[in-house]
Amino acid sequence: MTVPASDPKSVTGKPCAIAESVDVLVVGAGPAGLAAAIGAAARGLGVLLVDENPVPFRTMGDDVPLHFGQGMAASARNRNAMMEAFVASEPRIAEAFEAGVDLRLGTACWGLYANGPALGWMPGLVAGLADEESSVLVQARHVILACGRRDMGLGFPGWEKPGVMGATAALNLATRYDAFGPRTVVVLGSNTEALTTALALHEAGVTIAAIVEQAPEPIGDADFLAKLRAGGTEILAGHVVREAIGRDGVEAAVVARLDGEGRPVGEERAIACDGIVLAVGATPVIDLIDAVGCKVAFQAERGGYAPVLDASQRTSLANVYAVGDCAGLWAAKTRDRTIAEAEAARAVAALGEGGVSTEAAPPPAPSYDISAYRLAWVRASVIEARAEFHVCQCEEVTAREILEVRPPRYLDWQNEHRNDRSLSALLGEGPPNPDQVKRLTRAGMGPCQGRRCREQVAALLALGAAQPLSAIPLAGYRAPVRPMPLAMAAHVPEAPEQAEHWDTWFGMHAQWVPFWEVPARYTVAGNDATGPVASE
To answer: Which neighbouring-strand residues pair with 50?
Structure first.
C-alpha cells in the first residue's frame, strides 16, 4: 500500500531499499524457531531463519542479548569454536539445512516494521537484519518470532562484579558452548527455571554451593530440590544475599536470614563462590513484539508481559506469530521442549489464507503469585540493602534516584530536600510511568538497553504504589532493539527520492551554517535560518 506523501520532504510514500523478499522469516533458532522453519519449508515455502547467536565476545561483554556478567571463559573469544559448538548443540540445525532453510547464524533482527497508523506506506512486513559486517532490509509475507527468554535482574551491593549473571546466560554458556567460567556458584531463586539451571550446571561440572530463596519455603519442583541436596547443595530458604565480595570478581556471597517482614536479621555468613546466578524470574523476550506494535499484556500464566495470542499463535498484527519462550513461560514448557515445538506447528499450520486453526490448552495458572514473589525479592535485596548501589549499572542510577525520579547527575541537580528520608520511607508515593523514569533518570538507556534493570525499575515503582506488577505499564521498546554501530546504518541504501531532502526534516530550516558561508563576525543570535536550504 502506497500513500501519497503530504510533505514532499517526508519519507512517506518513498520506496524502501529492500534487499530480498521471503515467504517466511523466522527469528530465533531454538526448539520452537527450528520447528517452525522446518515445518514451513516442508510446505514448500521459502524460509529465512536468523539467530544472533553466537554473539561476539565483545557483545557478551555488554550483556547483550543476555546478562552474561563477564562469566564467559576464555574460550568464548574463539569465534569459530563458538559457532561450531552452537551448531553441534542442536541437532535440528542440520535438519533445517537439509530441509532447504536459509539459515543465518550470527545475524540479529534489530527491527521489525508493519503497516500501521504511522507506517501506512510500508510495502508489508519489513525486518532489519544485521551481522558483523552489514545491515539489510528484508520483506516477508509472514514472520514467526521465536526470540526466547531472558532473566530478571536483581541488584545488591557488589552485583556489578564479574561473575554475577543471569540464569539463561549461564545455562547457554555451560551447555551450548562449554564456556562457563565460574566453578562454584550460588543460585538465587528456587522456581522451576532456577532449579533446572542449577541441575544443568551441576551436570556440566559446576559446584552448586547453595540455593538462596527469600520465600520461607522453596517454590520449585521437590524432586529437583532432592537431587540438588543429594549433590551437596545447601538449600537456604528465607535468606537473601547481602553482598557479593571480592576484588576482581566474585569471591564469596554474604547471606543473611530474613524475618517475617522480609528484612535481613541476625548474623551474616559468607559462602565461598566465584559466581552468583540470578534466577528469580525469567521473562519472555518481547522487544521485537512490542516494537512492531503487537498487543502485549501482563499475563502471570505466561511469566509476565507477553504477547496476546489466539489459538494459532497469531499476534494482534496480521501475519505475525509468536512461538516458544517469547510467547510465554511456564514450568512445564521449561521441562519439555515439545510444548514449544507444538506452538511452532500451530503457527505453521495457520500460515496463509488456507491455514488451519488448531486448539491448544491454555497455560496453567502458576503455582505461586509471580508478582508478589518478584516484589518480595526486590524489597529484600534492593530496598533493604545495606548500602546504595546502582540498579541501572550502565547509567549509574540508584533505587533512590528511581523512586525520586531524580534527573541524571550530569545535569547538576541540587534539590536534595527528600534525601533525609530512608529509602523505605519513599515507598507509597505513586509511581510515574516507567518510560517517564527512563527519560528523566536514564535508567534503562545504556548499552545493555535495560536488560539488567528493566524489571527492577518496574518492581520499584510497583512497591512505591503498593500495586502488583500488572499495574505498572510496560516500558516501551523501540528499534533498534540491539545495540548497533551507527556506521551500520550506512549499509542500508536510500532511494534517490529519500536522499533528495536529506538536509531538512519536514520543512525545518537547517540549524547549522556551513563554514564557507560563515561571515567574519558571526553570532548564533544573528544567524538567519529563514532562507531556503540547499535542497530547495
So the answer is: 27, 104
| CA 370-376-382 angle, 5° bins | 130
Strand partners, 22: 140
For the ranges 41-55, 120-134, 329-343, 413-427, the lowest mean pLDDT is seen at: 413-427
Pair 226, 197: CB distance under 8 Å: no
Which pLDDT score, from 0 to 100, does residue 329 have?
96
Q: Are 148 and 171 in contact (CB under 8 A)?
A: no
Phi-psi region of 444 (alpha: psi -120 to 50; beta: other; left: phi over 0): left
* Cross-strand bridge partners of residue 208: 185
R_g of the chain, CA atoms, integer Å: 25
Question: Is the N-terminal amide bond of 157 cis, ω within 30° of 0?
Answer: no
The answer to whether 446 and 393 are in contact (CB under 8 A) is yes
Q: Which residue pairs from 351-354 have beta carbons closer than 8 angstroms and sit at least 24 positions apart in sequence? A: 351/24, 351/40, 351/43, 351/45, 351/142, 352/142
What value does the mean pLDDT of the chain take?
A: 89
Give the model confidence (pLDDT) of 219-235 as tens digits.
Answer: 999 999 999 999 999 99
**Residue 243, Cβ density class (10 Å: 0-12 exposed, 13-18 middle, ≥19 buried):** buried
Confidence grade of residue 525 (pLDDT, cut at 50, 70, 90): low
Closest CA to 105 of 78, 120, 85: 85
Which residue(s) pair with 137 in the sheet? 18, 128
Position 307 scores a pLDDT of: 98
- In eight-state DSSP terms, residue 72 is B
Q: Burial of 398 by CB count in 10 Å (0-12 exposed, 13-18 middle, 19+ buried)? A: buried
479-501 pLDDT, tens digit per residue, is 999 988 888 877 887 778 777 76
More confident site: 512 or 375: 375
Write the CA distances from 136 to 125, 130, 174, 490, integer angstroms. Answer: 14, 6, 32, 10
- Reduced to 3 states, what is the DSSP secondary structure of residue 455? helix
pLDDT digits (tens, 9 = 90+) for 431-460: 678 888 888 889 999 999 999 999 999 999
The 3-class SS string of 501-525 reads: CCCCECCECCCCCCHHHCCCCCCCC
Cα gap 64→452, rounded to integer Å: 10
Encode burial over 290-325: b for 16+ CB neighbours within 10 A, e otherwise. bbbbbebebbbebbbbbbebeebbbbebebbbbbbb
Kindly list the distances between the CA atom of residue 263 and the CA atoms of 260, 277, 383, 399, in Å, as whole numbers in the listed order: 7, 22, 9, 17
How many CB atoms lie under 10 A from the CB of residue 470? Answer: 15
What would the pLDDT profile of 137-184 be if each residue is shown by its tens digit?
A: 999 999 999 999 999 999 999 999 999 999 999 999 999 999 999 999
- At 246 the pLDDT is 97
CA angle 499, 502, 505 (to 5 degrees): 130
Please give the C-alpha separations between residue 333 and each of 149, 218, 323, in angstroms, as whole numbers.
12, 20, 12
What does the alpha-carbon distance between residue 276 and residue 203 come to, in Å, rounded to a whole number?
A: 17
> By the 8 A CB rule, do 258 and 214 touch?
yes
